[in-house]
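Justification of computing resources. Each target in the renewal requires a structure prediction run like the one illustrated here; the chain below, 706 residues long, is used simply to show the kind of job we budget for.
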Amino acid sequence: MIKLASVSDAGIGLAATVLMVATRCAAAGVNHGVIRGARTVTSPAFDAPRPSIDWLPPLDRFRPAQPRRNQRVRQEDRLMHGRLASWLVRVSQPSAAIGIAVGAGFIVVETLLVVPLRQVAPLEALALVYLPGILVVSAVWGLWSGVATSIVSALAFDYFHTPPIGRFQTEDWRDWLGLSVYLMVATVSGSLAQLARMRALESIERKREADAVAEMTRLILGADDVRAVLPEASDRIACAMQLPYATIEPDPAPRREGQIQLPLDPGALVVPGDVPDRVLRRLRDGVVPGLVTVLRAGRSLQANRAGLQALLAQQAALRRVAVLVANGVAFNEIVAAVATEAADLFDADATRVWRWDGPRTVTGVAEYNRNPGSGSTLGRQVDFADGVADVVLHGARPARIDSYEGHSGPLVDLARAGGMHASVGAPVVVEGRVWGVVVALWRRAGPPPLGIEHELAKFTELVATAIANTESRAELTASRARLVFAADEARRGLERELHDSVQQRLISLGLELRFAEAMVPKELGEVRSRLADTAAGLSDAFENLQRIVRGIHPALLSQGGLVPAVKALARRSAVPVTVRGGVNHRLPGYVEVAAYHVISVALANSAKHADVSEVSVDIDVVAEESATEAPAAGEILIVTVHDDSAGDTDPNQGSTLAALRDRVEALGGTLTLANPAGSGMSVNVKLPIAGQDRQGMDADRSSGGT
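Resulting structure tokens:
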């Protein structure tokens, strides 16, 4: 074997040198493998790479300042060591055949290299020539390849270079020292290389885990529906962990044979049952905790998105109804819009608005039904006993019935007839009193969503506002109507007072003057002339007073009605007037007076224009159209005054027409003016005839007059 001069000097020195070199090379490989793995841990889900150890400040920062040249040399030296280590220490070993060829090549080259070196170095030192081959083979191909290379290297050195050349010497124990050193170097180098290889492999696996978790984070947090992206996230886990399959179950699933379920709380990650323990440990320690966190965040984000979308939809629906309320739309349209918006927002099959009429009855004022064939509730009075309306109306609070089983009553039977299974309701409270209830109903089995009755209450607040506005407008209209009625009554009273007292007194005075004139002798001609002039002046005053009385309140209007009074007015007009009347019965006094004054002012305005040659007056009564399915509310008087003037003037000028518009609107009617160029001026008036309040006011209308 190898002949060493001194065991204590050469052998121990050689062993120490070899160990130092092998340790540094292998350690460099370990560190470079870890650093290389850490540097590559990036994720497409982030713009920047994940933190690595490169951000740590170099130790040179804490050392005394040195020349830049020395620092550059050290950096180049570290870079060279790193490249060498990355070449020597690989994650996967090359094939054994290549290792045998490389080891044999090293031994041949090293054996030939010893020959020229024998001239300049002692034989004991030349044993170091075989160390590079042992280091490379043990580092790249593992411990056993390094051991084999060490044995063959020792035999080659002993056979070709140790005297006697050409023979193997094994008698002395010291002959085995060189082989022991080779084996120790191979063992240390191979072990450290294997450690570095394991560290590098672990870093790569952690990179895959980090990439998988990052990709799952991007998928799950960026998805509107978490369940929809779970299959793709499962494929990413299976690919990263090199598994045949992996399945993320969002809900608890029964355990199946041949599978392993890793709990995700809730749900589980299902993997094959033959997964290696190392991979299973990586799944438990690395993937599952991150997956649980991401799933919780994804579900929370999805719930927040759904809640935000529901809030936006609710606010949009409330805004649309609020716009109707603010614009003063008719109450029937507002409650119909509330029923429609509530049904669409809460995915209800039907919504109904009930007005509380008596102790146990409600009347339907609006509804929305996805299946109109189930029957309408508009205008229908129903006993609300044992229904959701019973709880809402008597408790003045939102309520719900999750199932109609065990409930009975007319309102419940009506809901069952439409196929409904559950309902919620919210009260309509107007100025502290319960006016009615809004009810939403569902045909599907199961209870309605939790808290939906409180969301429905937000719509009832708008209904209450609409009712309050409607009542306020009705009170204002009634107040204006009372003022008009009072004014008309005052005018009629003034007309009667003038007729019964002043006009009669003027007539008697005129008769007395004529009698006095007849009694004056003919000789007193001047006196008779004075009396005649006084009687004539009194007659003119009487005629002027009659004209004033007709302006205050025409007697013919009270006696004969609207059409005869208008015809008499037309005969006194300065322009020809054609009157077409389709009214065959008397109208309420307030309607006749308002229409008469509008026609009178319109004829007076037409007479002011020199280009007017003819005026037409149309008077007709038509049935009022109901906005709901209820019967028509009554009749409408329609009056149209049209002339053939040139037009193209502002029809709203002047205070008379404005006052007339106020009068007509106070009676619930409308007055519109049109004056297009070349088409003449048109005045159109619509006055409602029916109405309990107005009929009551008109019940004591005087039918007499002068």
